[in-house]
Design brief:
elongated, alpha+beta
């Protein structure tokens, strides 16, 4: 009999505890819990439909229908509708077309399937390519985003599972007869044609339910692999479905755990585990047939040895103390928390939640309060003159002070998935700004905010004097402003460094701590205006633009010169966050478009522009003119394609056009309103928000 010492017992329990903690840790986070439940529900739906796909050899039909969803998803995304509803409509149309064309005796059923496959896919690509915005997330459509499953999506999956169960139970006898002898099914009065339609409907439900989790390219990981693996262990359809559901559930849980600890894409990992279970089942089945059940059990035990060997022999590896995505004092949300921060020239500040439309005012004490109808700002009359946002915080410069407002909404991008957070709206604090260098007199103007940029460690606020305040981003999130580090130059966080352009025009990539780094070959004389894009940091210069990008572990710079000597140079860039297409005013009779990818400047003539922006490459230019009309301009021909009045009279102050992946926002200072514009729908005004203050300054956060 084996006896264990106390030390050995403690070691075994310690290893067991660490292993359990390793398995449980991912599911302590709300979005992973939703992902797990979503995957389990999808596994059950796919088990019901996938079993018949495997038994009847309908894989090509399933592939065609999965890709046939693209037109519906594209239209739903462009109109701001529900993607699942769009997918269901498109997939249902595909199923109807397949059922109709398959009745023809002139060609085989797979010919009809192939034609509809290519046709629907082509229509979807055309819709996306001709849209005024590339806001459609094709990556999510193709590969899914299981970590973005919302609570409402779970209810959709529950409904899909209920519908699938009803179809599977009521149609079981007809499906069996249709699979093995269609003529006998007709003789028995089981209506094989109606059964075929019902079977295609069952497949449609499974595909629509699955694409949001693993995407169209990986949908067969859950639709085919678990039932195919289950076929090795049973010949009875109900048992195959049950085993397939269990295998799918295991693949979901194992895929999420692996994805969490290894850092891989969750949907693809789930699909890979599912496919892996099929090959394991195939190997074990072959061994069982050759050596019997004992041989299969031995092989399974042998396959588990590497997992045992991976266990820590002495001191277990440290386990992450806080759950993935956890942020102290914040609540994780299922969707982006868009906010608008507006301020007037008298110091009034309002924050509006674009999801709930709730408006919050900030008194000087820093605690938020609802804004009563007709109320005026309690912030005083210090004359706000500059406002910029870094995605979460808004920086308001006014009368020698820069106030920092936590908008309470932000996004953290982890590459293959994103986290959305919400927290209390509050004023975090303030810091003093300096007089503008070179100005004299009794009423010396102070520095104002010109731009704000943020990464996980730093928040940089660029001032109109050409200097930059650098804050500790973590401390700001905890409500501690502290004393910022001042850099003499325009500094932007990028790729875990600070990219700096100084007053002499020298471009340098420094460490986050400000330590000296690599001086770049290109210079940027008279730098004004900056932006961060997917292709690097952009600085506006007297002779064009300088782009600093990270490549092959290092940094490179490139100058994009103006097409001709420009008297009306770009001094302030606007763009959709992350977009590589930037816009800027070009004097009183035109606007600039800078395409970083194509390395080109384009000047579009338009009389008296006061604000400009665009959603990205191929999208129309949004230009607000002094008469209060918002114009949609074709970026290639320069012709007007749409217009809408957004002000009751001539524009006052400093108007702003803020653009996100879905909507544009234009402040009507005269009317004390902000208009939400659907730029993909002929500049339709979707909503109008009214304020008790004049929204002279505006910035969007949460992105």
């Amino acid at each position: 009999m084996l006896h264990l010492t106390s030390i050995e017992t403690i070691i075994i329990f310690s290893i067991s505890f660490r292993a359990m903690d390793w398995l449980i840790a991912p599911f302590e986070v709300a979005f992973v819990q939703r992902a797990m439940w979503g995957g389990l529900l999808v596994s059950c739906v796919c088990a019901l439909a996938g079993t018949w796909v495997v038994v009847r050899g309908m894989a090509f039909l399933g592939d065609a229908m999965a890709h046939g969803m693209l037109p519906g998803v594209a239209v739903a995304a462009l109109l701001g509708g529900n993607l699942i509803v769009g997918a269901a409509v498109s997939c249902t149309a595909m199923a109807f077309g397949v059922s109709l064309l398959s009745r023809s005796k002139r060609f085989a059923a797979d010919t009809a399937i192939g034609l509809l496959f290519v046709g629907m896919l082509a229509v979807g690509v055309i819709i996306v390519s001709r849209s005024q915005s590339f806001a459609v997330d094709l990556t999510g459509f193709l590969f899914g985003d299981v970590l973005a499953v919302r609570t409402v999506d779970l209810w959709y999956l529950v409904a899909a599972l209920a519908v699938s169960l009803v179809i599977a139970v009521l149609g079981h006898r007809a499906f069996v007869a249709l699979t093995f002898d269609p003529r006998k099914a007709h003789t028995l009065g089981l209506h094989p044609k109606a059964a075929q339609v019902a079977l295609v409907g069952l497949l449609t439900v499974a595909i629509v339910a699955s694409f949001h989790v693993v995407g169209t390219l990986l949908v067969f990981g859950l639709l085919i692999a678990p039932p195919a693996a289950a076929v090795y262990w049973s010949d009875r359809i109900p048992v195959v479905m049950l085993i397939a559901a269990l295998i799918g559930g295991f693949s979901t849980v194992a895929g999420l755990v692996i994805s969490w600890h290894v850092g891989t894409a969750a949907g693809a990992t789930i699909a890979a585990v599912a496919v892996g279970t099929f090959f394991v089942s195939a190997i074990l089945s072959a061994v069982r047939e050759r050596f019997g059940r004992a041989g299969a059990a031995s092989l399974a035990a042998l396959a588990a040895l590497p997992l045992v060997g991976c266990a820590p022999a002495q001191e277990p590896a440290a386990v992450e103390e806080t759950p993935h995505g956890y942020v102290a004092g914040a609540e994780e949300a299922s969707e982006v928390q868009n906010r608008l921060v507006v301020a007037d020239g008298a110091g009034g500040v309002r924050v509006i939640d674009l999801l709930t439309e709730e408006v919050t005012g900030l008194p000087e004490s820093g605690s938020p309060q609802p804004v009563p109808s007709g109320a005026r700002s309690p912030l005083g009359t210090d004359g706000s003159t500059g406002l910029a946002g870094d995605g979460r915080f808004a920086y308001l410069s006014s009368g020698g002070q820069m106030k920092i407002v936590d908008s309470g909404g932000w996004t953290v991008d982890h590459g293959d998935h994103r986290h959305y957070y919400r927290a209390p709206i509050r004023e975090s604090g303030s810091v003093a700004t300096a007089p503008v260098p070179g100005d004299t007199g009794s009423d010396v103007p102070h520095e104002t905010v010109a731009g704000a940029y943020r990464d996980v460690a730093l928040s940089a606020v660029v001032l109109n004097s050409g200097a930059t305040f650098v804050f500790d981003a973590t401390a700001l999130g905890e409500g501690a402003v502290g004393e910022p580090r001042r850099i003499d130059g325009i500094a932007v966080p990028y790729a875990e460094h600070l990219v700096v352009t100084d007053r002499a025009g020298r471009v340098e990539v420094r460490g986050r701590d400000g330590s000296a780094g690599q001086v770049q070959a290109q210079t940027c004389p008279q730098a004004r205006g900056q932006a961060v894009t997917r292709r690097g940091v952009v600085f506006g210069c007297a002779d064009g633009a300088v782009v600093v990008a990270q490549r092959d572990g290092g940094f490179v710079t490139e100058k994009i010169a103006y097409p001709a000597p420009a008297t009306d140079r770009a001094t302030e860039f606007t763009h959709r966050p992350g977009s590589t297409t930037l816009t800027a005013l070009a004097g009183r009779d035109g606007v600039w478009t800078l395409d970083i990818r194509k390395k080109t400047w384009t000047r579009t003539a338009i009389a008296d522009p006061v604000a400009v922006n665009t959603a990205g490459e191929g999208s129309s230019l949004l230009v607000l003119t002094r008469d209060g009309v918002l114009h949609g301009i074709d970026p290639v021909s320069g012709t007007e394609i749409a217009r809408v009045a957004v002000s009751s009279g001539p524009v006052e102050g400093r108007p702003v056009i803020s653009v996100d992946p879905d909507r544009a926002y234009v402040n009507d200072i005269r009317g004390r309103k902000v208009h939400e514009v659907a730029y993909n729908d002929n500049l339709r005004v979707a909503r109008t928000f009214e304020f008790d203050i004049a929204p002279s300054l505006m910035v969007e956060t949460g992105l």
